[in-house]
Amino acid sequence: LLYRMRLDELGALARVAGYQPIGEVVQVMRKEGANYAFGRGKAEELKALVRDKAADSIIFYNVLSSSQKYNLEKLTEVRAIDRYDLTLEIFEAAANDELAKLQIRWARLAKDLPYRRRRAAVKFRLGRERPSFMSLGEYAYHGALKSLTREMKLVETKIEKQRALKASQREKRRRLGAPTVCITGYYSAGKTSLFNALTNLHRLVGQRPFTTLTSKYYLVTRSDRGFLLVDTIGFVHDLDPRLIEAFQLTLEDVTAANLVLLMLDVSDSEYVMRIRLKSCLQIVRGLGVPVERMILVLNKVDLLSLKEIEEKLKIVDAYGESLPYVLVSAKEGINLDGLMKAVEEKLRENTGTQLQREALAPAG
Predict the structure, then answer these.
(1) Which of 273, 254, 287, 286 is nearest to 325 (CA)?
(2) What's the mean pLDDT in 285-306?
(3) Which pLDDT score is estimated for 206?
(4) 93: part of which helix (H) or strand (E)?
(5) H or E stretch including 105?
(6) Alpha-carbon gap, residue 80 to 115, rounded angstroms
(7) DSSP assignment of 210-251, as one string?
(8) Is 301 a residue whose pLDDT tops 50?
(9) 134: confidence class by pLDDT, cuts 50, 70, 90
(10) What does the pLDDT look like over 205-259, one tens digit per residue?
(11) Cα(185)–Cα(234) distance, rounded to whole angstroms?
């Protein structure tokens, strides 16, 4: 079931990125092949399938090493794309501000540089990149690699400036005294729909995943206690650690929040919901958010019968790490008052704990 879910999700992401899947190849191995991810025989089968289907790309769920990518492209003579590359293509199509574009570019360079080095090294060994009379004694690829390295350092410098700016903005918000509530969770779970429902805004909600790459803040005053609501980036299963590193600046909004609303699509199948719940909890815990600062928001409850809801809650009870949860429909406005009440209670509880910690802290 897990491999089927992974392939279905990969196919869905491929379609979002503009590809039309025309075939599948699966191989179960204890350890992926060093040269092709697949074994040699399965790689030859893939080559034949590419030829027969006239495919122009092959898309892997695995994150390919530089050697695997190079070898696969050489064998099949088409572009090899892994889940990391595919996710970045979707990000690039959704990016509409400088911070998102900077983080995407860093992620692209972090993946591309090792591949370029591998490609250049192979060509060098084969004698295809020898210095010519006009090259002034330096291999052509040296200049290209140096250029990419310089660009990466430049992007890192710009990101650090953005980090300093965001830290200053976060400090100003803290001085205002309004706590921060961050909406995150699995992609396409309805995070922006909930943001709109709680703020009465009309931010774009589309069928494409990852429409929010840079966090958006808004002051919510519909409760007894006002708070800053944050709409931020969504997660995906088996998220590559390098993508977490690349979007660390955006994910700091999750880490720094007083409360995190972790959203899931409760209309997913029981198996998919269980996997996505575990993935989200693993990612958020990895960001350093304690369970005391989380509420599970189970969205799209309007799509289920009472019996189906009861079955989904069994999954939450078994795998939700005893987190409090609220059933809502952001689209239909169902139980938003119940969610606001849970948010207020949790903020009151967490703020009291924070005040106790500050009182017990030693003087400067």
Answers:
(1) 273
(2) 96
(3) 64
(4) helix 83-94
(5) helix 98-125
(6) 12
(7) ----S-EEEEE-SSSS-EEEEE---B-TT--HHHHHHTHHHH
(8) yes
(9) very low
(10) 766 678 788 889 999 987 667 899 999 988 988 888 888 888 988 899 999 999 9
(11) 5
Instruction: Please answer whether residues 205 and 193 qualify as being in contact, where contact means their C-beta atoms are separated by less than 8 angstroms.
Output: yes
Higher per-residue pLDDT: 360 or 167: 167
> For residues 287 and 255, is the Cβ–Cβ distance under 8 A?
yes
Is residue 314 a contact partner of residue 274, using CB atoms and an 8 Å limit? no
Radius of gyration of the chain (CA): 24
Assigned token pair, 303: 């799509």
Poorest-pLDDT segment among 67-71, 83-87, 121-125, 308-312: 121-125
CA angle, residues 21, 10, 112, in degrees to nearest 5? 100
Strand ranges for the chain from DSSP E: 57-60, 79-82, 180-185, 216-220, 227-231, 259-265, 294-299, 325-327
Pair 232, 212: CB distance under 8 Å: yes
Distance CA 43, CA 34 (A): 12
Convert the pLDDT of each residue in 35-46 to its tens digit.
Answer: 999 999 999 999
Q: Is the distance from CB of 223 to CB of 145 less than 8 angstroms?
A: no
State which amino acid sits at residue 213.
Answer: L
Residues of the chain with pLDDT > 90, as a percent, come to 64
Per-residue burial over 240-250, b if 16 or more Cβ lie within 10 Å, else e, is: beebeebbebb
**Statement: residue 129 has pLDDT above 80:** no
Please state, in angstroms and rounded to a whole number, the distance separating the CA atoms of residues 183 and 198. Answer: 11
Distances (CA, A) of 280 to 198, 247, 262, 283: 22, 16, 8, 5
Bridge partners for 262 per DSSP: 184, 296
**Under 8 Å between Cβ of 246 and 284:** no
Separation in Å, CA 83 to CA 62, 64, 80: 6, 9, 10
- For residues 281 and 21, give the distance between their C-alpha atoms in angstroms, rounded to a whole number: 31
Query: What's this model's pTM, rounded to 2 decimal places?
Result: 0.85
The contacts of residue 275 (CB under 8 Å, 6+ apart) are 2, 5, 237
